Amino acid sequence: MTESIARQLLGLLSFTLAGAVLGFFTSHNLILGALFGSLLWSILSSLLNAKLVTWLDQNLSSPDPKLPFEQGRIVRSIANYRNKTEAEYDEIHADMDQFQAATSAMKDAIVIIDNQDNIEWWNNAAEEILEITIEQKHKRVQEVFSEPNFLEFYSQSSHIASFKADSADQKRVLEYRVESFGEGDKVLIVRDISESEKVGLMRHTFLANASHELRTPITVIHGYLETLQEQELPKPIQKAIHSMQSQSSRMAALIADLLTLSRLETSSENKSRKPIFIREMLNGITEEAKDVSGPKQHQISLNMDEGFDILGNEGEVRSALSNLVFNAVRYTPANGVIDIALEKLDNGVQFSVTDTGVGIPAEHIPRITERFYRVDEGRSRDSGGTGLGLAIVKHVLVRHNAKLGVTSKPGEGSRFSVTFPESRVVKI
Ligand code: ADP
Question: Is 352 in the pocket of ligand 1 (CB under 6 A)?
């Protein structure tokens, strides 16, 4: 800025001086010449400024004027700025076109929602899958999507990863996800998962039917083996029968677990809100655990807070908690300690089993609730497990809005906890 002022002053000074010199040589009048020079500079500056303003008034659309002096500099720097902005604009435009083309090609519906829950933008798939129309632009999500389960999911989207529901015309199954970005804005991504659901259902039906069909033959085989074992038979045959019996027991347990799992998979939440008499249940499980422990002589203790009960499905919760307790018995060497506890927390109730068993290396913990996932294949099989126990636990807990916690140190022991939310607790 100071440079620009200096240049303007220099211009004025040059014209004034040139006028003075001219005045002196033509009429020996230095002052008149200087005045004439400065007047000429002012008129010239005004003319150039007028040209500059006209160009600016035309939004820089006419060709860049070729102006001398400071005005020429102004034209050049504005033109440079304009060219740079145009290049950036073209780049943004190209990116936008590419983004539009990419989102149009996507099969998933994408809806952008601002921090006031207004629908701002969507892609072509959203029009097809969610039937969003242009009239719904800037409308609130709560007005456009009326399904109560979706709205419940949307309002707590930070806690739940995804939500499945039938489409409005009931013809497809949709999976909804909501991700946050920017300052409270959200993107809703909806995928048509009808095909994978169909395959999943077929797999599930097959597994349920196969398990069901296998149950009767295995019960018959098991029964005959039991009868045979009571007979006086040669030693090698007795040994074979004993081995067949233990394998058929394993198979029966496996089938029972597969059937339990397939039943649990059919719905996402157990709506049952009956008190399940948790204290009697845990007393029973602890006694059974002592029986299972048998010669291993574990020290098994049970500590329970009073004054509340858990709401849910008794059979399912028993199956989950007993799986955790029996695992502790299975994976804890003889004379180990197993503490079972039920604690009232500020915002729920926590059941836990702490053992001094073999423990689980950290890298396995995220995967132990997968079906048939075993940390140590040989040890698990020897211990009589089916490999489905923790998968059953996971499903039961999801259906009861409860959370599984696992902490473990190899060689030192493990702690499995189940936290039931306050909504699943009743005072007694
Ligand atoms: P399994 O029938 O093999 O016990 P689960 O699903 O119940 O199957 O458990 C999965 C795996 O997690 C087990 O194979 C075992 O390696 C590990 N595990 C579960 N509970 C414990 C525990 N209390 N201590 C050590 N390892 C455990």
Answer: no
Q: Give residue 372's region: left, alpha or beta (phi > 0; psi -120 to 50).
A: left
Residues 417 and 283 in one domain: yes
In a shared domain, residues 338 and 410 = yes
CA 323 to CA 209: how far, in whole Å?
Answer: 24
Residue ending a domain, choose from 174, 192, 210: 192
The pLDDT tens digits for 247-306 are 899 899 999 999 998 888 876 666 777 899 899 999 999 999 999 999 999 999 999 999
Q: Tell me, in angstroms, the distance from the centre of ligand 1 to residue 395's CA.
A: 16
- Residues 289 and 379 placed together within one structural domain of the fold: yes
Domain containing residue 143: 107-192
| Domain end (from 192, 218, 250) | 192
CATH of the domain at 160: 3.30.450.20
Residue 130 C-alpha to ligand 1 middle, in angstroms?
43
Looking from the CA of residue 332, the nearest atom of ligand 1 is 24
Residue 337 main-chain phi, psi, to 5 deg: -110, 135
Q: At a CB cut-off of 8 Å and minimum separation 6, what does 290 contact?
A: 298, 300
pLDDT at 381: 64
Structure tokens given for 181? 């970005």
Find residue 340's DSSP bridge partners: 302, 353
Which sign, positive or negative, has the C-alpha torsion 369, 371, 375, 376? positive
pLDDT digits (tens, 9 = 90+) for 348-401: 999 999 999 999 999 999 999 999 888 887 666 666 778 899 999 999 999 999
Residue with tokens 């059941």: 351
DSSP strand pairing (337-345 vs 299-304): parallel
pLDDT, position 324: 97
Q: How many domains does the chain have?
A: 4
What are the tokens at 124? 């072509």
210 and 321 fall within a common domain: no
Look at the block and give the residue holding tokens 């300052």. 183
User: Is there a single domain that holds both residue 337 and residue 401?
Assistant: yes
* Selected residue with higher pLDDT from 159 and 129: 129
Beta-carbon count within 10 A of 121 CB: 13
* Residue 67 maps to a domain: yes
pLDDT band at 1 (very low <50, low <70, confident <90, very high): low
Q: Ligand 1, from 374, 397, 404: best to mutate by most atoms within 8 Å of Cβ?
A: 374
Do 302 and 344 reside in the same domain of the chain?
yes
